[in-house]
Design goal:
single chain, about 90 residues, mainly alpha
């Protein structure tokens, strides 16, 4: 295989099996960057420990990484998720 785009189902299954057998715990690895590696508490740990809903969880995630990855775009995502969360809460209160 010369590129990931040429990977077939067997290759994907092999890689998935290797990932499942990793000796490094999932929280010790990050797919797609390293913007959470320096965090004392990773966003996913905080989110899961507090049983957060989808919108506030994404706000935590984007706020944590904004200065390391997405910048202003991540701040816009925070605002968008806050607006979605407000709309959800307003519908629930009717």
């Amino acid at each position: 295989m010369s590129s990931i785009n040429e990977a077939g189902p067997r290759e994907w299954d092999r890689v998935a099996a290797e990932c499942l057998n990793q000796t490094i715990p999932a929280l010790g690895r990050q797919v797609g960057g390293n913007h959470y590696k320096d965090c004392k508490i990773q966003p996913i740990e905080y989110i899961m420990e507090n049983n957060m809903e989808y919108c506030p969880a994404n706000i935590v995630k984007y706020a944590t990484r904004a200065d390391k990855k997405g910048g202003v775009e991540d701040i816009r995502k925070i605002i968008h998720y806050a607006e979605l969360w407000i709309e959800q809460k307003l519908k629930e209160s009717v």
